[in-house]
Amino acid sequence: MKPFFLAIICLSFGMNVLAQKQDTLSITLENVKYAYNVQFFNVPAEGQDLKMAYMDIAPAATSNGKTVVLFHGKNFGGYYWTNVIKVLSAKGFRVVVPDQIGFGKSSKAFIHYSFHQMAKWNKQLLDSLGVQKTSILGHSMGGMLATRFALLFPEKTEKLLLENPIGLEDYKTFLPYINTQQQYKTELKANAESIKKYYQTSYFTKWKSEYDELVRIAAGPTFSSDFPRYAKVAAMTFTMIFEQPVVYEFANLKVPTVLFIGKEDKTIVGKALLSLEEQAKHGRYKILGKETATKIPNAKLIEFENCGHIPHLEVPTEFLAALMKNL
Questions:
Q1: Which parts of the sequence belong to the AB hydrolase-1 domain (predicted)?
Q2: Most Cβ neighbours (<10 Å): which of 26, 119, 140, 158?
Q3: DSSP assignment of 196-215, as one string?
């Protein structure tokens, strides 16, 4: 090989390594700056001392004495709630935003993941902060967790607010079963390109450049030497979602509930396991939203046109107006 071409190859390799290094994020996102101060709540679990990250944002205006807790989705952390926090705080709400154990800046633990246990950890966090009663806004997986929280602790839940929650179907009734180890192998294949493609096709009806930051944060840990741990935890929480449905318990909810539904959402957990024909039968939120509203006593349904899985990012003006009206 001629020296010139060898030099070009070496330069290209060096630039790729540099780019990768710059894109690398730790699996607990230490190098991702959240919009508000992050604190940590100690969580002992299965012989391990874990840390649960959270933001506790005081009202920016005269306090109305009310608190709203925000539960993130599976592929996110507290960082994607910034616009919601700003509006709530400006209206006098205290806002508490946890990163669940296994997500965001919190510990990536090898434990048995359970919505029941997560709900209890969140109650303990709120108790430690002196929060007696709160509205819970849960997005995606956070909607499943928020539902479990409201079922376990109705006395602490002022309102249940569900933004395109997953779990409106029982996935194990139509998805082929795969165990955690099999899902782990799938999670290990994730990279920036596959993550962006998934976000483009699953989360939004029209891609905007501002969404690239979500991809950067989600893909950053794939460059980390600790990525296998991150992928294993992702597989464990996939199993939690698959094996712990809440869909059969909506009728048992005893708190005021509002569903915020982007009608173009077609999210199915484990969608790639299905044929295109089977995919077309499920994840139809324009139908699931209405069906779920009939299952929950006195539930209110608010739908957003031309909107996918994350209304608070895709149609923020409409979403935030609806949220404030229902608080």
A1: 67-314
A2: 140
A3: HHHHHHHT-SS--GGGHHHH
- With 70 as the cut, is the pLDDT of residue 100 above it? yes
Distance from chain centroid for Cα 62: 30
**Amino acid symbol at 110:** F
Model confidence at 5, pLDDT cuts 50, 70, 90, reads very low
* Two tokens, residue 115: 């919505």
Tokens of 201: 């096709």
Enter the tokens of residue 26: 């730790």
Residue-range definition of the domain harbouring residue 164: 3-325
Task: Report the number of distinct structural domains present in the chain.
Answer: 1
* 113 contacts 141 by C-beta, under 8 angstroms: no
Retrieve residue 72's tokens: 């993130």
CATH of residue 42's domain is: 3.40.50.1820
pLDDT above 60 (res 253): yes
For the stretch 12-66, pLDDT in tens is 444 344 445 557 999 999 999 999 999 999 999 999 999 999 999 999 999 999 9
Rounded distance, CA 156 to CA 126, Å? Answer: 10
Kind of pairing between the strands at 48-57 and 94-98: antiparallel
